[in-house]
Amino acid sequence: MKPYLSPAALILTALLSACSTDSSTPTATEDTTAISELGTFDAAFTNPQGGTMRSLSASVALQPATPLGAVDIRVAGSGMYDDERSNRRYLWGVFEVTNTSKTNLSNLTMVAYTKAGASIGGTAITRLQDAQGRAYLNERVAQNIRPGDHLNILNSYAFQGLTEDEAQRIETGARTGKLIGTNDDVLEYGFTVINPRDGSQTLRPGETGTLVLATKLPLLAGNAPQKFNMSLLLTTGGARRVTRNVGESNESVHLRARLSGAREIAYIGPDTNTAPGRYRTVRIPNIRLTTGAKPTYLLDLEEKLSSCVQGLQPTGLRPLNNAGPMVTFITDDGAAADHSRLLPLFKQKGVVATAAIATQNIISGDPYFATPEQVRDLQRAGWEIASHTRTHPDLVTLSDAELSAEIEGSKRELEDLGFRADTFVYPYGSHNPTVREKVCQHYRTAFIDRGGANDTPLNTNYQLRRVAFGAWTDAGQNTMDAYKAAVDSAIARNSWLVFMLHPGNREQHNEQQQQYLADTIDYVRGKNVPIVTAGDALYRLGAK
């Protein structure tokens, strides 16, 4: 095996090469229209659990499922990255792919497909195994094992999006060649091989490229698989394209296009960016991740909800004349610090907040969390009490019955304790159409975990955005200047700014952040901007 190059080293190699060659034109003759299917593979991922990040080691194996003569594939490494704030783990395998044929191979791409009779939840996943080594068939978990978003630490990762027509043509060719079954279904995403010599998507005879299979999956051990398998179909040919991945900057995708000799750049969903002059712009409405009558897609584009409480819909909201810019503070989880750190400060400043309570936390007896009586103190001080589920799970991984227990159950438990909850806060900001439909049947509004201020009039009241304060902030955004800038922007745009607090996280929400909180409240009041609860804000925005 050749020495393993890290993703950063691979992109650096390509950049150095690009300085001496003109990568805007292809360096080899390529077929840009015909797509050939070369064989199928089974990718086996091992997701380590327990211990610390330094002691954990992921592994990914790739085994041919059909005879293959055009390429040789060897494991080069693996890795993972945990995004704790959104409860997601990125897990990837790196492979060396050598062209053993006598012709150039362009756009070598591992395309995901569903294997009839083995697919779990209509996905490319064919096997799930829990931490105890037991097989299980959690469709919601399988549907949340997805291609990874863009990561700066994984620059050689080449996610590829396919149009519906392209996926259909690949499926037809693979069925004709008897590589997949007549009821198997090719999905609309894949992973493309990159030539580290020049960053291109072409391998000449004897050359070795890099393939990165990157996935994103739930992090929590309770719903995270220890092992899972994915069905992949290796293709070559087609248009020379790069796809802008979720979270990727324009600069990054333009660089990849230049290095790869691409002719087109694909943008997914409502992305309104346009490729630079010499590239063709391709619009892909969404990326289908599953088969079936109601497929799961890469982008969660909000659909109209039905059976919402009081028939509430965003289009029915009409802002009152006094809506104006507003600021709301929502504190998550029901920590005792809500009572010990926030309540005295907010009382001193003469303002109120919204406390999002996970009901099992406050009745657990754990001293980290507030007691029901302490939460009543918040309510008596004019605070709003909101629901944050019963046990703070990742809602998108739950069955319908489990969803009902968490969403309806938390409202019922709060009512039993003497609290009325009309506002909901998604744990980890995790939600999808199924979750939102259930939430809207019991609550008037719901919040995610970040995204900036909410412009008015609202175009949603079940995906309301927040800005992290003190804990779980984006890099460089935990300064007083950043908080003041968020307030100033909300005033300029006449927006509703909602700050997200986690005062129990004393490592991040330290005494400096507590002082910033006091100063921010003063700054907001000095600008004559009202500080209101979530429920009051919604009323001001027209929800009666």
Measured between the Cα atoms of the first and last residue, the distance is 67 Å
Strand content: 25-35%
pLDDT averaged over residues: 89
Uncertain segments are: 1-31
Number of DSSP strands? Answer: 23
The shape, in one word, is elongated
Helix content: 10-25%
Our count of domains comes out at 2
Overall SS class? alpha/beta
Helix count from the secondary structure assignment: 12
The largest sheet is: 7 strands, antiparallel
Radius of gyration: 25 Å
Oligomer category: single chain
Question: Overview of this structure, please?
Answer:
GO terms for molecular function: hydrolase activity, acting on carbon-nitrogen (but not peptide) bonds. Residues 1-20 form the signal peptide. Helices cover 24% and strands 25% of the residues. The protein has 544 residues and is α/β, with parallel strands linked by helices. The protein has two domains: 41-273, no CATH class; 309-540, TIM Barrel (Alpha-Beta Barrel), CATH 3.20.20.370. Strands 1, 2, 6, 7, 9, 10 and 13 form a seven-stranded antiparallel β-sheet that branches. Strands 19-18-17-23-22 form a five-stranded parallel β-sheet, sandwiched between helices. A four-stranded antiparallel β-sheet has the order 3-4-12-8, with no helix packed on it.
